[in-house]
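Here is one chain, start to finish.
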Amino acid sequence: MNWNDGSIPDCSIRPLNQFGDARGWLTELFRQDEMPLEHHPVMAYLSLTLPGAARGPHEHRQQADLFVFFDGAFRLYLWDARAGSATYGWRQVEDVGADRPCAVVVPAGIIHAYRNCGARRAIMINCPNQLYRGEGRSEPVDEIRHEDGSPYILNMD
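Its structure:
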């Protein structure tokens, strides 16, 4: 598939504003009153990614991710392969991390991946709207993987 580069409106990218004083700074990762109910987080985790390493590409059937990039240098890839979507066939690429801290909502059905493009390990936070493996970790993982020679890997330039 040939991908059209451009923004995917269903994927929200919001800059993180830092509020600083003599002690350091803080930033709001998300606010319930600024996010659609279907994307409200139910858990959170940190992920450390080594230089040059990629996570994904994969997609979720039900889950939306809220990625918070604030450290290191990541390249984020989003592919809209949702049949019937106004942006079907679009690919969006964003450089995010310490130089551009932001929170990114990735709705269910958007194929996504990110790569650490920096020279040092980098940390991000994810606050998904579904529990990993469901209540009590008793359900199948909501993930469709697109690795190992997929056209998405080939489109991660």
